[in-house]
Amino acid sequence: MKMKKTLSLIAAVALLASMTSCGQTNDPQNGNSAAETGAVTTVATAETTASVSETTAVTSEVVAESQTAAVTSAKKEEAAKKSDETPKTLPKASEKVAEEKLSDFFKIDSLLAGFIKTDESDSVTVSGFNYYRVLDGEKISSIDELQKLIKNTLSGSLASENIDLVSEMYVEKDGKLYAREAGRGSLSFDLSQGVVLSDVTDRSFTVTPNEYSTRYGTGVFKFAAEDNEWKILSYEVLTGDNGETEDQSGEAVQKMNTLSDLLGLFSGSVGYDDSDSIESDDRTFYRVTDITGYGTVSGLKTAVNNTCTGELKDKLLSDIENNFIEKDDTLYVWILPASYYIFRTDGGVSITEKSDTSFKATTNNSDELYGQGTAHFVLEDGEWLISDYSFS
Questions:
Q1: Does 204 lie in the same domain as 80?
Q2: Final residue of a domain: which of 239, 259, 277?
Q3: Which band of pLDDT confidence, cut at 50, 70 and 90, is reported for residue 33?
Q4: How far apart (Å, rounded) are the C-alpha atoms in residues 212 and 241?
């Protein structure tokens, strides 16, 4: 309203000035015209001055408001930028922080061990392995979600090792998540019994769960600060009454599980398609649909060489040659159903008769049919390999 009023006054002044000019030119003898004109001009000038002052005030208000808005906007941008640049505050080392991170670690380990519900009627095959669709509402819904959980929980080589396993255990297709069967054990402690913190510094601390697990014994977890978050840098698990480290008992469990898998494969425990077969040496071989962790004759032989030695290795390699063939890059199996031994390692193992070059690992749990399994390990070229086994 002020601007319109100002413009109207300016227009009026201009009109009066024009009329006055015309009057002076056309009627020079009119004595009163100059005075009247002067009076009118004075009034107009006063009004014009007032209008200009008012316009100036309005303009100043607009400029002031504009400047204020600009300053406010600049302050907001500066504050936002400062907020982005300000690192998060590292939380204080506490039992709560440790338990939350350990809980996430145990979840990661179980997911990478195949402990997730899937729909076996919906599967995809990738590089010779079958992956089954993860059911809705399960512990993870995407590869990206699992990778973020790992990065937020673990640090260093422990993080990179677990991230590498994600691509082996999970695939995505058409927006769906698929998981591969693994069947290995996963690490876990009962955190409801609490944890104990030690060696606490500004950038690191150590955690020991209070639970003494029948399977894992005790565990020691090293935490380190990274990106102003506490993450698990490394861990060591002490198992068994004799306190053997996970490096030895863990390797024993892994290789005993592999041996169980191999014994099962040679006894007919393998996924195959009986509608797709080939004939060889008067025998029928069926197309293999799933051999978790292997997939080819070469892969099977590698598993044997990395697990066994001596006569046991020679026998298993001979079984591979007899039971499996490849044609057109496809693996086929000859089925000869038979019973086979399984090491029940879900309760861990006990290490006995240990020396620098050998030891025995006996399962803590028993198989209902065969009892406890014992594997005899020998050191060969820096690797612990199974030379023989027995059940009792």
A1: no
A2: 239
A3: very low
A4: 11
